[in-house]
Design the sequence.
């Protein structure tokens, strides 16, 4: 009897731990609306410094981004596989910071504007795309979030790419990394990426 | 028995933490490889120089001018002027929508032009959008060529105008023929506003300053993402144009 209870307990824990932060397909629209609204609220707070706002925003959006996968795709399979485990980890970390910094800068810039969540559509076979629109002063800007299902037999949707006005962020980094790696070593490129994070 | 349960539970944990398998990353890799391949860029040397030149012009000339202008002219007026310029560019949008057989959009564009010109104070207000919900359908001849399967050619950075490519340069030429704001084709079309080339440049520069004043900080914020400015801007341009053509 007790064993059964322990078993149940463990099972529940495993399931909840592994899927605590993941989104289900029919939750994506609602959850992302909440998250984006939250982010806009944080941006409006006047008593916080920019870096404090950044930290709060990261807390809200962190769990839906798959930074490691984003780092992997933007580096390309060959380069990724040629790196040691440590280097891979280092790269993921620096790249993650870069993405976060850039995302916050964009949001800050579009501070007083509204975001409309348009629709969730199938994208590239097994993936989903959430279309959103930022209402600007003279025109609207399309921002699309691309999701993939991480868990095979259940649902755990995570973002692997963001498209701004049709330009994929990951694709843009991929091209830049490939170009840089023709002239520089990986370590030199990493330094460049890291130093761009420190610039204001 | 207890041990077995713990082992089972542990395997569950391991399962949840399983890393991406090879087949899976392969899938993503091909999704992103298909799109680019090696970029054909015979003018890269010149393009790089021109990108730097344009960057300097933007940061040191256009941006300060637009800032000063924004300081003097209230935002509502600037949005109105922006709407006015958009409205008189109607011939370009109509023709290219028609050429791409987008009849619904062509009709809506025509409707927008009539409504905004008559009830929107000669185009200063976009009442078609705010009251009727008719969105603009921006199409240019570069997109029309793309629609009929003509490729980019290669990337060319134009002085002052920024990123473009062979196909879009042809498009710019064709569009300026029907454009109200150019002098080309004035012998055939009598709705042209500028009489001389100098007037044309003046009007267009003013339009650019006005638009820039509404997008302050946008370029700077975008630029921060670049590790290497020229390929970064080239890539964004190529991807954005591709998307516009698809739509």
Sequence:
């Amino acid at each position: 009897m007790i064993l059964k209870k322990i078993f149940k307990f463990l099972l529940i824990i495993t399931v909840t731990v592994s899927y605590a932060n993941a989104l289900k397909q029919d939750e994506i629209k609602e959850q992302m609306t909440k998250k984006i609204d939250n982010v806009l609220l944080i941006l409006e707070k006047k008593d916080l410094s920019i870096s404090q706002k950044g930290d709060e925003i990261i807390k809200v959006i962190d769990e839906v981004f798959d930074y490691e996968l984003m780092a992997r795709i933007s580096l390309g399979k060959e380069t990724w596989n040629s790196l040691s485990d440590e280097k891979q980890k280092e790269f993921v970390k620096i790249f993650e910071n870069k993405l976060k910094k850039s995302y916050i800068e964009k949001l800050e810039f579009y501070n007083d504007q509204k975001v409309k969540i348009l629709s969730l559509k199938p994208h590239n076979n097994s993936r989903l795309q959430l279309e959103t629109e930022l209402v600007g002063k003279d025109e609207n800007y399309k921002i699309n979030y691309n999701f993939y299902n991480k868990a095979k037999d259940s649902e755990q949707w995570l973002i692997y790419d963001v498209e701004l006005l049709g330009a994929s962020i990951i694709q843009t980094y991929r091209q830049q990394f490939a170009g840089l790696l023709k002239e520089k070593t990986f370590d030199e490129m990493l330094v460049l990426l890291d130093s761009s994070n420190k610039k204001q | 028995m207890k041990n077995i349960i713990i082992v089972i539970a542990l395997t569950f944990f391991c399962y949840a933490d399983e890393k991406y398998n090879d087949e899976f990353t392969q899938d993503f890799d091909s999704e992103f490889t298909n799109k680019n391949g090696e970029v054909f860029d015979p003018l890269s040397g010149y393009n790089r120089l021109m990108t730097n030149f344009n960057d300097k012009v933007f940061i040191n000339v256009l941006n300060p001018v637009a800032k000063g202008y924004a300081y003097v002219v209230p935002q509502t007026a600037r949005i109105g002027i922006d709407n006015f310029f958009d409205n008189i560019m109607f011939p370009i949008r109509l023709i290219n929508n028609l050429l791409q057989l987008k009849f619904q959009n062509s009709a809506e564009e025509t409707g927008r032009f009539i409504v905004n010109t008559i009830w929107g104070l000669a185009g200063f207000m976009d009442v078609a959008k705010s009251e009727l919900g008719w969105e603009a359908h921006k199409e240019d001849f570069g997109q029309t060529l793309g629609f009929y399967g003509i490729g980019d050619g290669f990337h060319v950075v134009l002085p002052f105008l920024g990123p473009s490519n062979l196909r879009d340069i042809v498009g710019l030429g064709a569009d300026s023929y029907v454009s109200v704001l150019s002098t080309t084709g004035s012998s055939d079309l009598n709705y042209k506003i500028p009489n001389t080339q100098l007037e044309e440049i003046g009007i267009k520069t003013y339009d650019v300053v006005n638009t820039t004043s509404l997008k302050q900080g946008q370029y700077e914020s975008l630029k921060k993402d670049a590790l290497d400015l020229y390929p970064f801007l080239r890539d964004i341009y190529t991807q954005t144009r591709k998307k516009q053509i698809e739509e």
